[in-house]
Amino acid sequence: MNLTLLLSFVGLCLLLAVTPGPDSFLVLRYSVVGIRPGVAAAVGSALGGIIWAVVVAAGLAALLEQSATAYRALKLVGGIYLVYLGVRALLEHRKQTKATEAVEPVVASTRSAFIAGVLSCMFNPKVGLFYLAVLPQFLTEVTFVNTLSLGAIECLIAGMVMVALAFAASRAVVMLQRPKVTAWLGRISAGILAALGLGTIASVGSSA
Q: What is the pTM of this model?
């Protein structure tokens, strides 16, 4: 792969990374809780992308492209998981608003945020299909190493952008110092996650 193709690919990755999607809303949701959960969700999502890159590089993701049933099944699971994350986040906020000042508020651990990031990305078949369809366009020679290298570059760029988003969102919450604003941001991001999940489930039903 020459320098021109590499720069073009990096530009495309940057454009995709700043485009809002399930992973970025997930990072925003955890960043409202704290900077560590937000960064953990971002790192987890990036790791999920690397797993997809390995799968695509090994040629296994071609099964998703050839099997409409496998694609719909994985997409359905991903949609259900997003709805679960959104509903769980809304329930956590309800618990926080009912808690007294003497009770420690419900918070998300870095481990749960990391796992949520990994699963959110892994249950999104569009990531695998993107790698499968786009990566070869930027390779002069399609090999396991070359494909995995581009996948790793995309994951690194996406991870850095989402970590920056986590820091920005967490910093904004700290600067505002308004619990009501924090709560509303959490509800909005949770609602968006649930809406994205419902939309994914609906699209599976309409395409069946």
A: 0.68
